[in-house]
Amino acid sequence: MTQPILYHCPDARSLRCLWAVEEVGMDVTLHNLPFPPRAFAPEYRAVNPLMTVPAWVENGLTLTESGAIVERIVQNTPLDVAPHEADYWLYRNWMHRSDATLTFPLAVMIRYTQVEVPERRLPQAAADYKAFFAGRAKSIEAALADGREWLVAGRFTAADIAIGYAAFLAETLNAHDVLGDATLAWLERCKARPAFARARLRQKA
Ligand SMILES: N[C@@H](CCC(=O)N[C@@H](CS)C(=O)NCC(=O)O)C(=O)O
């Protein structure tokens, strides 16, 4: 059994995985890459032909979806929600929603405000996709409206990591003004997790 390798770019979606690693105390080899790898790390294609982060390599298996990797990391820990628990399917829904529904519009914003060369930047696309994110993020506010501390199962779970990263990314893009009060308070609770701070520190090493 070899130690898993996590390929990561600072504050990219792979932060979900590094945060989960720190929450559960798993030993992994962290491989930091410059962003975007397709421009600055051509050798990474041999690991992940998609040229996206994260990638997770473990015993001959390569995973490339942040949600699936987080699920792998938290398996058999209290951060997972088990099939016999009442919130199991809600939990799974949040795990899928985290990237497919909530991070996607933010990725469009990043591309058209930061990644593209200045002449290809599109302020209108960024504004439209921020509005798209705003509509979708109402689902977080609705879930937290009853005053609950965490999204599901009455405890901090991988759903808070997966969705918390999307809210954190919105904040790094200055798009958090569209988040509701309950969401902003929950985001602060997420960021106050010692494991989140450790992950952000470790990615700088
Ligand atoms: N659905 C994938 C998306 C992965 C993804 O698009 N990652 C971004 C970083 S946040 C990336 O590597 N972008 C660089 C590129 O596409 O060239 C996941 O959740 O891991």
Protein architecture, described:
With 205 residues, the chain is α+β, with helices and mostly antiparallel strands. It has two domains: 5-79 and 195-202, 3-Layer(aba) Sandwich (Glutaredoxin), CATH 3.40.30.10; 88-193, Up-down Bundle (Glutathione S-transferase Yfyf (Class Pi), Chain A, domain 2). Helices cover 53% and strands 7% of the residues. The chain is built from eight helices and four strands, in the order βαβαββαααααα. The protein has a four-stranded mixed sheet. A hairpin with a 2-residue loop joins strand 3 and strand 4 (61-63). Helix 4 runs parallel beside helix 6 (158-172) and helix 6 (158-172) packs across helix 7. The mean pLDDT is 97. Glutathione binds next to helix 3.
Categorize the overall geometry: globular
- What small ligands are held by the chains? glutathione
> What radius of gyration results from the CA coordinates?
17 Å
Mean pLDDT: 97
Category by helix and strand content: alpha+beta
Number of helices: 8
Query: For the largest beta sheet, what order do the strands appear in spatially?
Result: 2-1-3-4
Q: Estimate nothing, just give the exact number of structural domains.
A: 2
Reported CATH architecture of the largest domain = Up-down Bundle
Give the topology string: H per helix, E per strand: EHEHEEHHHHHH
The CATH class designation of the largest domain is Mainly Alpha
Largest sheet: 4 strands, mixed
The strand count comes to 4
Fraction of helical residues: 40-55%
- Uncertain runs are none
Q: Give the termini separation.
A: 25 Å
Sheet-strand content, in percent, reads 5-15%
The fold-level CATH name of the largest domain is: Glutathione S-transferase Yfyf (Class Pi), Chain A, domain 2
